[in-house]
């Protein structure tokens, strides 16, 4: 299997958000990629400009960041042409590697806009090198570092400019070469631009110390939360149902928490991220994690906080009718 290390440059509406084309807020103007074999040795490269079709001027942000002009871009080919060539170049047996998760989202959104065949039938595995960099090299696992930060941190030679697709892909390769295969495998990501189409194709992934489930789509949050599979808390070590001690609750309707207990493996914390699709439907990403009693207690604290806020809100409403 080959690695396709991908980087995109894109433009956005130069006249502000309210005049953007909703189906394509970010128009891809350059695709750059490096192909590596399974030993992370470079075996190919891809670099193409795309002729702008939706936004015919550069947004000031794009202009400042990118060393590209409209005149140069106009020499590029159409997105469909470049993307078609790119997919041919990728071959059949590969996995994407990107800096962050947004490139794959925007790539698929652009493909959809031009009515191209979807990249995949449903969710697919890829490596988010930015995330893996944080997990391997940073103390704080919540930080998001720029590619240039990672390059500096690892003392990689800065021979090229940043913010051109092929050059950024190449820097991403250099960062990747500081990672062990086992690190990459441990922290792999799942792209969910295409949701599971039905119950049978829902995703169950097991990581080192937690499990992840990606549901099919539902028409409402309530319908999603009422689904037995969504609300279940099966222990990922023994497969037995861990009994809920605190049922699913939410403060903002975006993140839900619960606490469960497996007879054999102890306390478990459940977390559901409620995701809204472009068509206004919902799907969930649920993670279950075996935790210490102390960490499980945090769920209780959070629940009390949510209840307190709700009481206060109600009190204020009755005060000011
Ligand atoms: Zn168990």
Summarize the structure.
33% of the residues lie in helices and 27% in strands. It is of the alpha+beta class and 321 residues long.
Which helices and strands occur, and which strands form pairs?
Elements: E1 2-12, E2 26-36, E3 42-49, H1 60-65, H2 70-73, H3 79-90, E4 94-98, H4 102-113, E5 124-128, H5 129-137, H6 147-153, H7 165-176, H8 181-186, E6 189-191, E7 203-206, E8 211-214, H9 221-226, H10 228-231, E9 243-250, E10 255-262, E11 266-276, E12 282-290, H11 293-319
Parallel strand pairs: 1-4, 4-5
Antiparallel strand pairs: 1-2, 2-3, 5-6, 7-8, 8-12, 9-10, 10-11, 11-12
Helix pairs in contact: 6-7
The structure holds zinc ion.
Residues 235, 237-238, 240, 262, 264-265 line the site of zinc ion.
